[in-house]
């Protein structure tokens, strides 16, 4: 008995009860504090959403979803081109970032090198990726500007009136000449793309908008001017200058990419790549080693193990990471502003691979900075639309993830 | 494998959406042609078959004007694609110098350095004023002591580190309250213009203890909530918040009279020296192209009406006509830089004359 600590032998029941009450009270206080802190963040979100809803709900109209930005009819401005633009840019981003990110994660997790110098390189890559995840997105915008928009100028610079860059496919060049009929033009097919403009003094073969070829007449000042419209439409003044225009098919492709939606998508891919890699790595790491060892044990190669055991087991986790990353990509404004510019006047989505696109965050940024009250309300309404689009995309992805999980189990 | 197939459904769904989206053009271009064409020349009701691409970059102040013109132009010439960016006057000129754009929007005249770069790269341009912006000095409506300000008083308030700390320092009859200043960011053309007016040719700088913000809405709010505040920004922002702010009358140094930044006072030049002209700079090489030529003449024909609809003040018809003549005759060069490379300043009518033109 004498070896027992005095605290256990000589207990004061009163003190013990008081102490227990005190500790329990502290515990419940702490619990209350946690709930309060959790509520603060929820409260902020609710206040934010309520404020946006109050400001923007009156502008949630069909016009908002179907029309384009309008400077002259503000109340009928819409965001259709930006919804399409955002979806396409995010699609490009996903196509670039997901395979690259998951492949990198598989390499880093499943193909760990054994020799010392290779291990060092492995560690170095790992460290870099962790650092890249913390780089502000505007830095990626500047990176995208050099790498995708200008491509280090190795393919030449795109200059108006001089060089369209290195055109690979989908471009038809014509000289556009004004006819005697005001507002009407004809096109002269271009043979040598390096000659950017011609002066027409002799009759020459031309095409109209529907592609019919005809002989373009030349009117010399001083001689009688043609009177009827049909002739005027096929006659030009002597010495008229034809400047190059380009008819672009949807698959029009040239280098450098310039301010195209592809550049935007690739830049966003750079932004979210580290997030996808880290999330994928974590979920691959969470796959039980016994699964891997069992697979190896029955004679599967590393690739077979990855393909049939690790990846299927890690897919839900990888998808969760990807969903979060795509949510970030669709809401990014800064890198897109750097890469695609602040253009908001566009009638629709991109028409060819090299076309510009406007995205929802950039449009919201532009609208929120305008002085007119209508634009402020439109910005709030556009935020609601952005949230809804994000919600739809995320829930689709979550449903797919659920199905994949079920199929796997 | 079923799992892999299903992973593709989301991307595929998005791809399908994208394809659907690409095909469908929004209906702004096609509808309401009636309203659009009523103001253009005769016989132009049918959309033109003109094609081509026009690239514009530059001042975010001029952006709404160029957007408005491009929007109206697009109804008449649906095949011409006009892309208008608003990266700022300086960035716009950077693009313009290296032939990335056809037209550069500017909320201040070109600077000597920018002109040198243009000459180096063989870019000649035509300088065309398109509208007036009245820089408005605003105070809180509860401020009952300030009605008018002279340029000297503004210099006292805004310039140098020893600038007036309280209103009393500016005028002994005013209260000894601290002056709070709200101003646009240093990168903006508005800041540059204000700086040029109050500092002039001397080396001094605007005081450093101002609240600077690129977002003019924040400046409006700052002044509206603070009795002792003063701020400045473009007249378009003032027009939208008239009930929350009070515009200060500025004493015109030439005739000693005080003027409010009203449309009439800005257009007549009485609201000097704070009515600033806005410009477009058109590349001479691009002007050979039919679409650029058509767009620029459309711009000058319609800008006076359209700039008022987006909150700016129209230029006197004589100046617009002069701009048109310069475009017509391909008169390249700037009026704002002397042959010795010095910047000229002054009222638009005085500077924008043929004798000042320098190639």
Shape assignment of chain B: globular
Query: What's the end-to-end separation of chain B, in Å?
Result: 70 Å
**CATH topology category name of the largest domain in chain B:** D-Maltodextrin-Binding Protein, domain 2
Describe the biggest sheet of chain A?
A: 4 strands, antiparallel
- From the 3D coordinates, which CATH architecture of the largest domain in chain B would you assign? 3-Layer(aba) Sandwich
- Greatest interface and its participating residue counts: A-B, 72 and 77 residues
The percent range for helix content of chain B is 25-40%
CATH superfamily of the largest domain in chain A: MetI-like
Q: SSE order of chain A in H/E notation?
A: HHHHHHEEEEEHEEHHHHHH
Question: Sheet bearing the most strands of chain B, described?
Answer: 9 strands, mixed
> Any idea how many domains of chain B?
2
Q: Any idea what the radius of gyration of chain A is?
A: 32 Å
CATH top level assignment of the largest domain in chain A? Mainly Alpha
Give the proportion of residues in helices of chain A: 55-70%
Strand content of chain B: 15-25%
Q: Could you give the count of β-strands of chain A? A: 7
Provide an overview of this structure.
Chain A is an alpha+beta fold. Helix content of chain A is 57%, strand content 13%. Chain A is built from 13 helices and seven strands. In chain A, the strands form two sheets. Chain A has a four-stranded antiparallel sheet, with no helix packed on it. Chain A has a three-stranded mixed sheet with strand order 4-5-6, with no helix packed on it. Chain A is elongated. The mean pLDDT of chain A is 91. With 359 residues, chain B is of the alpha/beta class. Chain B has two domains: 51-132 and 277-356, Periplasmic binding protein-like II (D-Maltodextrin-Binding Protein, domain 2), CATH 3.40.190; 134-275, Periplasmic binding protein-like II (D-Maltodextrin-Binding Protein, domain 2). Chain B has helices spanning 2-7, 9-23, 33-37, 63-76, 89-97, 112-120, 151-158, 167-170, 189-199, 216-224, 235-240, 263-268, 290-309, 317-328, 348-351; strands at 52-58, 80-84, 103-106, 125-139, 148-149, 180-184, 211-213, 229-234, 246-247, 249-251, 258-259, 275-283. In chain B, strands 1, 2, 3, 4, 6, 7, 8, 9 and 12 form a nine-stranded mixed sheet that branches. In chain B, strands 5-10-11 form a three-stranded mixed sheet. The termini of chain B are far apart. Chains A and B meet through helix 4, strand 1, strand 7 and helix 13 of A and helix 1, helix 2, strand 1, helix 4 and strand 2 of B.
